[in-house]
Amino acid sequence: MMSSSIARLNPQSANVKGGTARGVITNASKGLAETMCTNLGPKGTLKMLVSGSGEIKLTKDGCVLLQEMQFQHPIAQMIARAVTAQDDIAGDGTTSTVLLIGELLRLAEYYIRDGVHVRSIVEGYTIAKEELFNFLDSYKKVITETPAAHREVFVRTAFSSLNTKVDVGLAHQLSEICVDAVTCIAKPGQSTDLHMIEVMAMQHKLSTDTVFVRGLVLDHGSRHPDMPKSLENCFVLTCNASLEYEKTEVNAEWNYNSSEMKEKMMRAERKIVDENTRKVIALKREVCTNGEGFVVINQKGIDPLSLDMLAKEGIMALRRAKKRNMERLVLACGGVAVNSFEDMKPSDLGRATTVYEHILGEEKYTFVEAAKPNSCTILIKGPNKHSIFTVKDAIRDGLRSVKNTLDDMCVVPGAGSFEVAAFNHLQEYLEQVQGHVKIGVRAFAEALTIIPRTLCSSTGRDDAAYVMIELKEAHSASKKKGLGECYGVDVESGEITDANTMQVYDSYIAKRAMINTAAEIASQLMLVDEIMKAGSAKGGRGGMQE
Question: What is the rounded distance in angstroms from the CA atom of residue 468 to the CA atom of residue 484?
């Protein structure tokens, strides 16, 4: 009746309903999961993305794949948008979430064909989700207050995220860099703003030459050949005031009839600029009493005559600095960004340990390093754009992983150990569940095993089913002994190993987001009983792929 009513309202519409609609949804989710399953884990394979203009990108980052791939199927588009939105918050777990959604829908379709009502499965998924949240809170590993243990856990958590995107050697190096960057800007009791970490790319040398700079790297240099190229123990004046003659906002005309009048007019125009320049020089002479350096970084312009005056005093001056760099300079070096050269005080100045200029071809870079900065820079190096893009995507996930760990002050043992422990927990929890919803809880428990099974397959082993039996038995035996349930898959050897021994840790919020997103999306899609697609106004019924 509904289909005929829609057809009368719009004869060019296409719709599928009932079991056919569920088949369309299940096939789309399974197809997306099968596409991405080979990318899971450190041993995952790469995908080649070719744009319409012929640009090629190699990656196995789940978020990058979902953002760059072109989806024609509406269900695949919906899953991709929801999962990438989760990645913006959690920073990891994109591929795992897609796999879990596909497995939840596949198992639901299996039970529905056996006559189980879809509402029973949805309610079972909801119960399982809430129970898993409680189990996750008891399963997580709280970080101790020992500083040495602090850093090691942060580094290992970042490494677990980065190791799935770049090679092992580079992942170790980037893990240290990510931890240094986040701890540099972190303040006790305040939210950590990752925008205070500048990620800059320099097409130069190798990816392993990527460095962490305790300060800022500006993508321009001084504009006078006689200015110093390197200074140590510097005072830094951050300003947003012009040191050049500026035209008035109101159009004015000045007529002169002699060269003396013209010279007088030019001196009057220069007077204010020269006075401001002399004020900067006077401040430099006041504070630099023991051979310290002096640096001026201006958001506005500095004319050649002012640059010459500053160069004669040994001052390094940079003009036309970007606004975002001006904001970070104050955080990195301290001091105050002045908007006028009137009443400048020594307390307005910041301090930098080293300021030096680096020339690469026709490009100039200025490094401003401080002792205790609250803003920093990760300088990515690479021989080509592909290497730089790969490292940049990996660093983004690594920074979010460290930030989330710092906010949560806990981690979750990885390598698939949580999913196996959650499976065992839900199997035991089934005894407390009454009614048909048991089927949904059992299906959710079985779906969780897709993560360790896929990890096992990516190592080259073809006996994932036997490995899962061994994992479940190892968890049960360990629980009886009171040793915890932390056995997972060692991706290097394919053997079963304690995740704590391997020091493989996942972000707490990423696991929680994976459970919540997968359960919500799968439940919503299972409740769809009809898919309607409007046709074009010019005619022709649109089709709905199964």
Answer: 17
Q: Find the largest Cα–Cα distance for the chain.
A: 104
> What letter represents residue 419's amino acid?
E
Alpha helices by DSSP H, 297-416:
304-312, 323-333, 385-408
CB 379 within 8 A of CB 210: yes
Lookup: tokens for 192:
């950590």
Residue 313 has φ and ψ, to the nearest 5°, of -90, 5
Please tell me whether residue 216 adopts helix, strand or coil conformation.
Answer: strand
- Nearest CA to 358 among 375, 334, 381? 381
Whole-number Å distance between alpha carbons of 144 and 150: 7
Average pLDDT over residues 51-62: 77
Of 170, 187, 146, 139, the residue nearest 505 (C-alpha): 139
Question: Tokens 């990510």 belong to which residue?
Answer: 178
Segment 451-506, tens digit of pLDDT: 888 888 877 777 667 777 777 777 677 776 666 667 777 777 777 777 777 888 88
Residue 511 host element (H or E): helix 508-526
* H-run or E-run covering 233: strand 230-239
Least-confidence region, from 249-253, 254-258, 397-401:
249-253
Interatomic CA distance for residues 41 and 163, integer angstroms: 8
φ/ψ (deg, to 5) at 460: 105, -5
Name which of 48, 26, 47, 51 is nearest 37 in CA terms. 47
Residue keyed to tokens 């309903």: 17
pLDDT one-digit tens code per residue, 164-205 = 888 888 888 899 899 888 888 888 777 888 888 888 888 888
Amino acid at 507: S
